[in-house]
Amino acid sequence: MKKRLLVLAALATVIGLGLQSVDAQIKKGKTRPATTKQLMKGVVGVNCGALKKAIDAETVDWDEVALRAAVLNESGYGLMDDGRCPDGEWAKGAKAVQSATAEVLAAAEAKDVAAAKAAFAKVTGEGCATCHKAHKK
């Protein structure tokens, strides 16, 4: 029970950090109008929270897990595209999100809850946290 509360608290912190504004997250791409802050709140935060909820459900909906992981995977590319990436830490975090969400997708295909949870921990711990440490104030 304590471990689950710790994981939920960590997730809430990561999502909350993703919703706060910072200088790097108000940047627009070179040609696209959405700000990074808008993408974080409207795409990344929503799907990250929904993925966690889907993986932790008593009965896992693997289609939902795969959907949310796939959208997060694509967001890793979108946050790098169109001149949005300000530095190497940003790129490292985005690539970690891409890699870890691919692991979540593989776990969903195998219907392996433990592997999905371990991969999701990488999404937030190696992906989101890497960039947030460098760019959150």
Task: Report on the architecture of this protein.
The model is unreliable at about 10-25 (pLDDT under 50). The radius of gyration is 14 Å and the shape is elongated. The longest helix has 23 residues, at about 90-110. It starts with a helix and ends with a helix. It is built from five helices and no strands. It is mainly α and about 140 residues long.
Category from helices, strands and their pairing = mainly alpha
Strand content: under 5%
Shape: elongated
Low-confidence stretches: 12-25
N-to-C SSE string, H for helix and E for strand? HHHHH
Radius of gyration: 14 Å
Assembly category: single chain
What's the mean pLDDT score?
Answer: 86
Largest sheet: none
End-to-end CA span:
31 Å
Count of alpha/pi helices: 5
Number of strands: 0
User: Could you estimate the helical fraction of the residues in percent?
Assistant: over 70%
